[in-house]
Design a protein that fits this description.
The chain is an alpha+beta fold and 268 residues long. It is 14% helix and 28% strand. The chain is globular. The protein starts with 5 loop residues before the first helix and ends in a 15-residue tail after the last helix.
Length: 268
């Protein structure tokens, strides 16, 4: 999800177009955000959310992932369009901030996606479960969730529900952002309006508190329609159903993992 506006893309290309004599069409500005759209704010992060690094922590991180509660205590929820191949060797840094890794760095070993993502890249199945390896903490073999805790996997939020999205825009040595806003629906996809979510925010969880339990539930993630959205102020999610639980079960049982195809166009 490279959520750059048409105007920004044309601005970047303009010098090339002029130099080569190619006439550029008038810039098409993004439509204005709905009145009252909030703006995400940087903060120090939470233990269950972090960026994914494909090429080591000295390179920019890409998409966001979150720890999802599971029997094996070793699973992440991410956007399928962020994943390619087996994802083995990718690194997850929960609570990452300013280049620091307060909850360690965890290595991805396997990926699981819905068959409909593999066959047709159906945006309603734009989610993935990533499994991470245990590591030694204070001389003991320890699972990720034992260090960070985990969010309970929920189902698609209702229209009007309030969610908080915690995300990492692509970069390095940075902080996450968060925004609390309300959900609406477009063509069967839950969505929200909040400024500030650009490339790297894909996979970031939509979190809600479960009343009377002390638990946090993840009811969505940036992805789905247009791989999360065409404009930085509107984000979408696949509508999570029982099929997402099936991926958790596959990973828990240790079934054959998937080799994930590279995502196609977002259609923006």
């Amino acid at each position: 999800m490279l959520r750059f506006s048409r105007a920004r893309v044309l601005a970047v290309l303009a010098p090339f177009l002029v130099a080569t004599g190619i006439a550029a069409a008038p810039a098409l500005a993004d439509p204005p955000a709905p009145p009252g759209t909030p703006t995400a704010t940087p903060f120090d992060g939470i233990s269950t959310v972090g960026p994914l690094f494909r090429h080591g922590l000295d390179q920019d991180h890409g998409c966001t992932a979150s720890v999802v509660a599971s029997p094996g205590r070793d699973l992440l929820l991410a956007a399928a369009h962020c994943v390619s191949g087996t994802a083995a060797g990718w690194q997850f840094a929960p609570g990452y901030r300013d280049g620091q890794t307060p909850y360690g760095v965890w290595t991805v070993t396997r990926a699981y996606v819905d068959p409909r993502w593999i066959s047709t890249q159906d945006p309603q199945y734009d989610y993935a479960i990533l499994q991470v390896a245990e590591q030694s903490v204070d001389g003991r073999r320890t699972a990720l969730q034992d260090v960070t805790g985990g969010n309970v996997l929920g189902r698609a939020p209702r229209a009007g529900q309030t969610v908080t999205d915690v995300a990492y825009n692509a970069g390095i040595d940075d902080k996450p952002i968060k925004c609390t806003t309300t959900v609406s629906y477009t063509d069967g996809f839950p969505g929200f309006n909040c400024h500030g979510y650009v490339g790297g925010s894909s996979g970031s969880p939509w979190l809600t508190k479960v009343p009377g339990t002390g638990l946090t539930e993840v009811d969505g993630l940036i992805g789905g329609l247009h791989q999360g959205g065409c404009y930085e102020y509107t984000s979408y999610s696949p509508a999570l159903t029982w099929q997402a639980y099936r991926l958790v079960l596959r990973a828990t049982l240790g079934t054959k993992p998937d080799v994930v195809p590279v995502a196609g166009s977002d259609g923006c």
